[in-house]
């Protein structure tokens, strides 16, 4: 009945394995774990923007947003945001950036879980999201 | 069609950033990562109950349950419980408390994933849940 | 309206606590975190197959697949795969095995998040999945 479709924003780097940046089926849109990679550049390996947490957080959220939008959703449709940080000392700064980013949200913000894990060298944050479309 | 609503139990501490303790849209209810904070006390920072794993686990499960109930669900509706512990040596005790907590469940228990991560100082466990309402 | 049912493949080891290997309700199928345990053997504690990442990854994916199939789904229905590795140096080899495993997928692959966490001794990978059935 409802088709499963891959959701791939134009500028996104190619995933390092056989997975989709986003998948939509019915009214569910799942966004894969996004990191702070800037737009894909042919012939260059993906690289995170700036070394700082603020830049990486904003770029990561933008990358999630690009998948949401490509799938026909917005942050207003997000049910859950999963945040993976690498250092508990980053929590306060991360939250400050997060709150700025979502300052204009009109609907209730999504739920969120934040935990501290290991990530590949150079990455300070990874974020995925689940959205339910109207 | 289906509205997105925030689910906020009365006694819960205010989230440290722009996210909801729970979100419901359609028949999906997503509970944000809960920790062992006791009821909010005005003018005091949120603090976990007792230092031990048993107390923290029970309080964390109660906090998840409060969101489920505020959203019109119960544990019987839970599809997935995500458990974040900080030490693999806690697994056996955690499971014992978990099984006690769910001793009276009438429907099949939810699925579960348990991994070991970093959490803010003083916290031994974080749990989130996804429920599908009838 | 839609019943919640436990999904338990025949050969799977008994979960170490009160949770289900899979749960289906409506068109949602949630697979619990699977590890590289081989088929259950009466009287023996669950043990992972082989010590290597390749063997563990294949067995873990097979265990997820068994739950999907027992619940009436296939990998084609998977929306999200959550991968928990223990060492960032495993990423490339894991991806190679992952891509082999999914070489024949006809629909868009699921979304995926990969993070690095602690797991019980001997386990190198844990994977869970969310599927939406037609």
Automatic annotation (TrEMBL), chains A, B, C:
Coiled coil located at which positions? none
Q: Where is this region: Disordered?
A: 1-21
User: What InterPro entries does its record include?
Assistant: RutC-like_sf, YjgF/YER057c/UK114
Which Pfam families does the protein's record reference? Ribonuc_L-PSP (PF01042)
Lineage, top-rank taxon, reads: Bacteria
Protein name as it appears in the record: RidA family protein
Which organism's genome codes for this protein? Streptomyces meridianus
């Amino acid at each position: 009945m409802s088709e499963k479709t891959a959701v791939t924003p134009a500028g996104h780097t190619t995933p390092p394995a056989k997975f989709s940046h986003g998948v939509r089926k019915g009214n569910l849109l799942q966004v894969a774990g996004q990191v702070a990679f800037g737009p894909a550049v042919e012939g260059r390996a993906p690289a995170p923007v700036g070394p700082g947490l603020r830049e990486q957080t904003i770029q990561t959220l933008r990358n999630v947003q690009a998948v949401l939008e490509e799938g026909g959703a917005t942050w207003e449709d997000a049910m859950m945001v999963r945040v993976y940080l690498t250092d508990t000392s980053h929590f306060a700064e991360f939250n400050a950036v997060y709150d700025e980013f979502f300052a204009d949200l009109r609907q209730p913000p999504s739920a969120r879980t934040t935990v501290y894990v290991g990530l590949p060298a150079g990455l300070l944050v990874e974020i995925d999201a689940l959205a339910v479309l109207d």
